[in-house]
Design goal:
Layout lengths: L6 H10 L3 E8 L10 E6 L4 E6 L3 H11 L9 E5 L2 E5 L4 E2 L7 H15 L3 E2 L2 E2 L2 E4 L1 H16 L5 H14 L3 E7 L8 E3 L5 E3 L6 E4 H11 L4 H14 L4 H4 L1 H19 L5 H24 L1
Antiparallel strand pairs: 1-2, 2-3, 3-5, 4-5, 6-11, 7-8, 9-10, 10-13, 11-12
Length: 293
């Protein structure tokens, strides 16, 4: 059986003293996606775990250290062996498969707020204000990639750049972020409790981007998003992520569109359509000013 697993994962199981009874690959490696093998593994002991192969040992070690400080309800990491991270497998229904109930939206907003309130990771304080310059540079590079792919015209890009310049807060609160908290990664177990899974993108970054990324990735109807947002607002440690939401929402959509254009052009239409609608909306907002001139 181990010969059918990625060799690194088979070695990690052996080092951890675990024996697989059955396994299933749940994420295929794709061209351009370095080492993203993920398995569900049923152990002979009856326990079920997730094994993820990361790009290198240092990435796996750093992620393991961060994951040990995640709040309750975030699926725990169990061990790090070489470039392989072992974690708890959570059985249940993904919220992305249905429209979440009000209670689940409240719980999800609370979980994001609790994550952002985490004060220390791997023994170090994480909260602080940092420049948004790196994110502005990433967004500019993303716009150029989208334009070069003939997926966005210069006029729309000009509107987006102008909005980013107007809305950029200059500095943002950084802290512990998930980067992919959405319905696909929130599981309701048989007892009705929420768990956040797929935590491999957890790290230290701008809290505002994390909120906007959840808004973009979790395609909720406006009333449902408002319920999640209002719960987050009532329990979050900082107001800045919502105060600067317009800026970060543009950043999140450009970021997603650029990634799709680079890696999977056939699936790029969703963020690109959102980006074009944003540009059209920005153009409409400017129209009265142009007429007054």
């Amino acid at each position: 059986m181990s010969q059918s697993l990625d060799p690194e994962i088979a070695i990690a199981l052996d080092r951890a003293g675990l024996r697989a009874r059955a396994f299933r690959r749940i994420s295929q490696m794709r061209p351009g996606d370095a080492r993203r093998s993920v398995y569900r593994i049923d152990l002979e002991s009856g326990r079920v775990i997730k094994a993820r192969l990361l790009p290198d040992e240092e990435t796996a070690r750093q992620l393991f250290e961060i994951c040990r400080d995640l709040p309750d309800a975030f699926a725990p990491a169990l061990g790090c062996y070489g470039a392989v991270l072992l974690g708890e497998w959570i059985d249940g229904e993904k919220l992305g498969d249905t429209l979440p109930s009000d209670a689940h939206l409240v719980a999800a907003g609370s979980l994001l707020a609790r994550l952002h309130a985490t004060p220390i990771v791997a023994g170090r304080p994480v909260h602080g204000r940092r420049s948004t310059a790196a994110w502005r540079d990433k967004t500019e590079a993303g716009l150029w990639q989208i334009i070069a792919a003939d997926e966005l015209d210069e006029q729309d890009a000009l509107l987006i750049r102008g909005a980013l310049e107007r809305l950029d807060p200059g500095q943002a609160v950084f802290g512990l972020v998930h980067t992919d908290l959405c319905g696909e990664n929130v599981v309701v177990d048989r007892a009705g409790r929420l768990h956040v899974v797929d935590n491999e993108r957890v790290g230290i970054d701008a809290l505002g981007f994390d909120v906007a990324r959840s808004w973009y990735r979790w395609a909720l109807p406006a009333p449902a998003w408002e319920r999640l947002r209002s719960t987050y607002a009532a329990r979050a440690p900082f107001t800045e992520p919502l105060d600067t939401f317009d800026f970060w929402s543009i950043v999140a959509v450009v970021h997603s569109a650029a990634l799709r254009v680079q890696k999977d052009r056939t699936r790029a239409y969703v963020p690109l359509d959102r980006l074009r609608r944003m540009a059209a909306d920005l153009g409409d907002r400017r129209a009265p000013c142009r007429e007054r001139r």
